[in-house]
Structures are given as structure tokens and as C-alpha cells.
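Example record

Each entry pairs one chain with its bound ligand, calcium ion.
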Amino acid sequence: MPSQFPPGTDPSLVSCFQMADQDRSGFIDDKELQRALSSYNQTFSMRTVHLLMYLFTNTNTRKIGPKEFTSVFYSLQNWRAIFERFDRDRSGKVDANELREALLSLGFSVSPMVLDLLVSKFDKSGGKNRAIEYDNFIECCLTVKGLTEKFKEKDTMYSGSASFTYEGFMLTVLPFLIA
Ligand SMILES: [Ca+2]
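C-alpha cells for the complex follow.
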């Protein structure tokens, strides 16, 4: 059974979902979600869409219904606001310093080495810009947030180290790599 829209959902969000759900199944697939999110002056890569689907659906179904769509939508609005707040020079990209501050504001303190790796991997110019555009910023933050949360589940004392079995490690990391 598909989920319901939360009470008071913006009607334009409801019609956006209904337009995406062409067969009226109550669920939208990856391509439909990509199209629905892209209609707001922004395109997202299939990888970002899959990552959103992984993080915003429950383990059993992995399907986007009205409730999940609403969460994705509002969460993207929130990320957009964070991006704009930390893109201090309004370049349309966040550089290493801006990303460090954005991540810190979200409670993620990464080392200079990790920061450097994030900026070079999520820079769609392949490292030329040394900065990350909005869609890749989303992907970057979702990855850092998701992996940090998975790590914290194992590091209940917040000591900064955790132990994983091989199986546990693979099952934790692979969904982020192959989203
Ligand atoms: Ca900037």
C-alpha cells in the first residue's frame, strides 16, 4: 500500500507527485522521481536520485510514495537553503572552506584530508574548479551524513572508532558506492 501525504501538504507538491505517477500506482520510480525533482529548475543525476531513494525509503520496499516524496522534497529545500547560506561568495559552488563550514553546521567535522577528497571527488569539472555545484553538494552531504550515521550506530560511545565485521562493513558501505 502506498503511503499518504502528511496533513497540510502543499497542494502543488501533491499535483507534482500525481503528475509524476503516470500509472496512478501511488509510487514513483527513479526516472519519475528524477523528472519530478528536476522540474524545479534543477537536474539531479540518477546516482543522486538513487541515493535519495535509498535514504528516504524503508528497507523492505525502497519505494517512493506520497509520504516519502514529501520528505525528499522538503529535505531538498532544506539542503538548498544550506547550500545558499554557505556559498558565501555566491559563485554557485561551494569550495573547500565553504563545504567545511556547511558540514560543521550539520555537525560533521571532517579532517582536512577527508575534506580534500570530498571536494576533488564531487567536483564535476574533475578537479579543475576545486568546488562543488548544488546537485553534487546534495550527493556529497547525503553521503557524509549517511556514512556518519552508520558509523555512529557502531560507535555508541562516540570514541571515534568502531569495529565492523567484514560482512557488516560491506553492507554498510556498498549502498553508498553503488547507489
Ligand atoms: Ca562559493
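The chain has a mean pLDDT of 91.
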